[in-house]
Amino acid sequence: MSAPSAVPGGLAGHLDGFVRAVREAGIPVGISQAVDAAEILTVVDLLEREQLRHGLAAVLLQRASQRPTYDVLFDLWWPLSDRPADASSPDGSGEETGGEPGDDDGSTLDLPDGHGDGRDLSERMREELARLLLEGDDEALRRFARQAVDQLGRAPASPSGQSYFGYRVMRALSPDTLVAQLLAGLLGDGGRGGLAEQVARQTVRERLAAFRAAVDAEVRRRAAAERGRERVARSAVRPLAEQVDFLRAQQSDLAELRRAVAPLARRLAVKLSARRRMGRQGRLDFRKTVRASLGTGGVPVVTHHRPRKVHKPELVVLCDVSGSVAGFSHFTLMLTQALREHFSGVRAFAFVDATDEVTRFFRPGADVAGAIARIGREADVVAFDGHSDYGNALEVFADRWPTAVGPRTSLLVLGDGRTNYRQPGLPVLADLVRRARSAHWLNPEPRRLWGSGDSAADRYGEVIDMVECRNATQLADFVTTL
C-alpha cells in the first residue's frame, strides 16, 4: 500500500513496537490491522494525541473490555509531551529528548502566591487543582498532573535511581476531600437536591477519576523512561478478563467473564450436540443399496442407510463448590447457567463432601449471584466437616442418581481434584465415564501442580479426559478442539 509507505522509518518502527506490545498483552492484532494502524498515521494529526489514540484504537481493538489495557500501553508508547513529537529521534519513539524524566520542560503552571515549606506548596497546588477541576479543562489537568508528580510524587533517591509514586501525590493533595467545594462551585446558588445535584456529583466523580488516571499515566511514563517501556508494561498492564485465572478472579472481573462465558457455553452445547449427528446415518439399508446399484451395472456406487435417530442432547455437570476453589466455582456456576440457556437437557450437581442436585436454581434467566446464594443456604452439599471429599461426593452422586449418567449423556466435571488426602473414588468415576457417551474434567490448576500435595488430578486423568482450564482463553481452546 502506498499510504503506509509515507510513514517515516523511525515512526514506523515505533508503531511496530507498539503493535507488538498490544499483541503481547493478549489483544489479537493481525497483519491487516497493523497495516491499517500505519494508515492511521498518515491521516490523523500526529500533534493531536487524543486523535491518534482514538484512531489507533478504532483499528486495533475488537471489544470495549480491551480499552483499559490499550490505554495503558498507549500512554507508555505515546507519552504526553509539551513539544511536537520528533519522529526522527534516534530511537524513533517520538518522545522528548534532552531532558530527565523529572524535567517539566518549561511547562510549569502559575500557582497561587505563597511561600514556605512543602506543606505550603501542597496547599497552593491543592487550590490550583480545585480550580482546574471546576473548569474541566482536560489538557490543563493532565499538565497539572505532570507537574504534581514532579514536585510531590518524588521519593527519596535510591541507588537504583529516582522513583515517583502516585500515592504520594494523592496523599499530598487529597482530591477526594474537595468534593463539597466542587459541588458548591458547580451548583452555585441553585441549591442542593434534584437532578442538578446528581449531574454535578457525576461530573465531579468523572473529573477526579480523570485526574487520578493522569497521575498514574505520568508515573508510568517516568518509570518507563528510567527502566524501559517493556519492563513497565509487564507490571502495569492488567490481564484481560479472559486471561485472569479463575482462582484469582476479582469481583470486577466476574461481569466480563460472564460475557465471555455465554458464547462459549453456546458453542460447547453445539459441539456436544453435533457429536450425535456426526458419521454415517444409521445402519446400511441393503435393499435400497442393491436397487440403486442396478443403474450402475450392479456396482453399489451409492450406498443408502437407514435414518439414524438423533437423541435429545443430555449433559450432566458436576461442580466443586468448596472454598478452596471459590473463584472457580463461581465461574463453573456461570457456565452451568449459560449451558442451561443454550442446552436442552442439562442437570447440574454441586458438591463439597456430599452432592446435591442444583438444577432447580438455574432456571433460564435466573440471576447467577442469587443462585449461588441459594446453593449456600439450601443445597445439601456438606455432610461432615465442609472440606472437599471427592470420593464421598462421587459415591453419593452414584447412589442417589444412578440413572443420571447413561449412554446418551455427556459428563462434565469441574474442580481441582484436591481430596484432602481422602479416598478419591476412582472406581466410581471410572464407572461413570464408562457409562457416559463422553466425559471431560476441567481443572483450574496449572498442569504442573497436578498430583502435588493432596491433588489426585493425575490419577483422575488416567480414567477421564483431564483438561487444564485456568481462564476463559483455555476454555475457548477446549471448546474449539472438542
Contiguous uncertain segments of 5+ residues: 82-107, 276-280
Number of strands: 6
Structural class: alpha/beta
- Tally of separate helices: 18
CATH fold group of the largest domain: Rossmann fold
Biggest sheet: strands, sense, closure? 6 strands, mixed
* 3D shape: globular
Distance from N terminus to C terminus (CA atoms, Å) equals 40 Å
Number of structural units classed as domains? 3
Supply the CATH superfamily name of the largest domain: von Willebrand factor, type A domain
Write the layout of secondary structure elements.
Layout: H1 9-24, H2 31-43, H3 49-60, H4 67-77, H5 118-135, H6 138-152, H7 166-173, H8 179-187, H9 194-227, H10 229-236, H11 251-274, H12 286-293, E1 314-320, H13 326-342, E2 346-351, E3 355-357, H14 368-378, H15 390-400, E4 409-414, H16 426-435, E5 438-443, H17 457-460, E6 465-468, H18 472-481
Describe this structure as you would to a colleague:
This protein is α/β, with parallel strands linked by helices. It has 3 domains: 4-77; 118-228, no CATH class; 248-276 and 311-481, 3-Layer(aba) Sandwich (Rossmann fold), CATH 3.40.50.410. 50% of the residues lie in helices and 7% in strands. It has helices at 9-24, 31-43, 49-60, 67-77, 118-135, 138-152, 166-173, 179-187, 194-227, 229-236, 251-274, 286-293, 326-342, 368-378, 390-400, 426-435, 457-460, 472-481; strands at residues 314-320, 346-351, 355-357, 409-414, 438-443, 465-468. The chain has a 6-stranded mixed sheet with strand order 3-2-1-4-5-6, sandwiched between helices. It is globular. The two termini are 40 Å apart.
